[in-house]
Amino acid sequence: MNKKLIFKVLVLAIFLSLVFGVMNFLSSSSFRKDLNGLFVSDKRRMNWCPDHVVDVVWELNSTSKIENAWLTTDAQKIATTFCSIVMEPVDIVDKDVVQFFPLLTAISAEGKKITLEWNKEKGLFKVQEISFKSTESLKKLIQP
Question: What is the pTM of this model?
Fold first, then answer.
């Protein structure tokens, strides 16, 4: 009888450790990234600019290195390219520790200003406290 009890306790301990192992694996960031890659529907387009954009102003600092062609492009082309951005999900941990820098300010006919901020190293953008990734926009900004 002691052998049966010891066997049952060992089986329960093994299964309990397996449950904890599976829970840790399912909550890992690498698993979540792989899972997000399976569901393309997580990406959605957001128009962050105000209505009737009349001007856009680059708000670049010394760490903001973007493709030089964008600096000489007219405001309407910049607005049509960057006002509508494909958003990708971001882990909450990333948003809390990242410092954002102003990138582009869109100005409407009424004078309303909205600024797009970014962190080039992390590939993150932020508009009005909404943080997101946009691989498409990042590539347009830094690649020739």
Answer: 0.64
